[in-house]
Specification:
Elements: H1 6-27, H2 35-45, H3 51-58, H4 62-74, E1 78-80, E2 92-94, H5 96-120, H6 122-139
Antiparallel strand pairs: 1-2
């Protein structure tokens, strides 16, 4: 396994983590959430409130982002509000169900990390986190890039 390129190994780690995350989210009452939904919910939870602002973060068209947000509206994870002064702007906010999904996701991600730390050791996990952060910052002009689906 030492001959597996790091990028492929990192992709495998993301795949394993996302599969576990979504299995646990389904058990927590969110069976229809997919990774793209999670990335969108996270963005909305941090203040990204329109398809126009979401699209570049997810690497998709504004129309694609609008469709994704509509799915989240239909599933009661976000609701469309109104923007003062601009009838064209359709800001979204998390619903109670959306906040619950984000909170569950954060808790599950913590659990996944704890399980991995139990395998490799807490110090190794802390070192891995710091090393990956350093590498990502070096490759992205000193800022952490948005997290998006690997289409």
């Amino acid at each position: 396994m030492d001959d597996v390129p790091l990028v492929r190994l990192l992709s495998m780690a993301v795949t394993v983590a996302l599969e576990s995350l979504h299995e646990d989210l389904a058990r927590a009452g969110h069976p229809n959430l997919r990774p793209a939904h999670g990335y969108a919910l996270h963005a909305v939870s941090t203040g990204v409130d329109t398809a126009s602002r979401l699209a570049p973060l997810l690497g998709m068209s504004k129309q694609g982002a609008a469709k994704l947000l509509q799915t989240l509206v239909d599933e009661d994870y976000v609701e469309v509000g109104s923007a003062s002064g601009d009838a064209r702007r359709k800001p979204v906010v998390l619903t109670r169900r959306g906040r619950a999904a984000v909170e569950a996701s954060v808790a599950i991600q913590h659990d996944i990390e704890q399980r991995w730390a139990a395998v490799v050791g807490p110090q190794e996990m802390q070192t891995l986190r710091a090393t990956l952060r350093q590498a990502v910052l070096a490759e992205s002009d000193g800022t952490l890039p948005p997290v998006r689906p690997a289409w």
